[in-house]
Amino acid sequence: MNERRRREVIILGGATGLGRLLAGRLHRYFNVVTVDQLPFHDRPRDIEHISIQMTSKRSREQLFKRKPYAVIHTGFQELSHGRRAQFLDRKSITHLIQWITNVKPKKVIYVSSAVLYGATVETVGYIDESYPLTASALTSATGLAANADLIWQTLFWRAPKTQTTILRPVSLVGPYQNDWLRRLLGRRHVLGCMGFDPLLQLLHTDDFYPLIAQILETKISGIYNVAGSGVIPLTRLLEARGSRPLWIPEPLLERALRMRNIVTHAGDAHMIKRFLKYDLLVSDDSLRQAHNWQPYRRIVDTATSF
Length: 306
What we know:
Layout: H1 2-5, E1 8-12, H2 17-26, E2 31-36, E3 48-51, H3 57-64, E4 70-73, H4 90-103, E5 107-111, E6 126-127, H5 140-152, H6 155-158, E7 163-169, E8 171-173, H7 180-185, E9 189-193, E10 199-200, E11 202-204, H8 205-215, E12 222-226, E13 232-233, H9 234-241, E14 244-248, H10 250-259, H11 266-275, E15 281-282, H12 285-291, H13 299-303
Helix pairs in contact: 2-8, 4-5, 10-11
């Protein structure tokens, strides 16, 4: 235990919901350092927090002088709560990749998202990690996140001795999560697209952050989808939550999403409309085979947990 505790794990985006959960889990086993532009006031005492601005060279040096055992980037989660994603823009990623190439940590884990595959009429059946990130063209946020996913993949050849893992989880549910799905479902009357009942996949953070802890102790790297246990139709999910569907004709759905403050930008509304029309189901067979991992929460329990 003492040997493990001396190993330093840096969490980029440590003040995000996922970053807080990971820090709370890992600080019992590692020397955890959270890094973010926002403060992390309620962290455990033994967690060090560094507030930096990636646009400032002097501020970046607080991070780049360290030589950690592992780096975890909360990635797509940084876009939640409408915050500026300072660790996702191209310049910041370039600096981070160069730092990692120089210090050569043992592990790098980047948290992307299965949302980036995009829900379309062509996403029939289960898709694997080779499917293109088609949502990159829908909004500036998904374009930023998809570009970051591709850039982090360069570590496979730029730092071959570093075990790099890119995770693409389905929609995360749990404490501190405030993405569009939670804003959509967290209402008594939930908007739906008239004539459509899409299948959804959900993953609870209680299933996800133990996976990251497990990856820190393995020698396997690669790109992996992360799905929950099974799928659930939207109508069945609403029934389990005690919510009622409010079916909106397709031409009016994007406007309704903006009027109810589910999203603020037209591009985001267009993307969510696709998820309310078409299935987006990902296969995580490669992850389960490589890491012998499986979620323990039933999807109905996950759907009613927030």
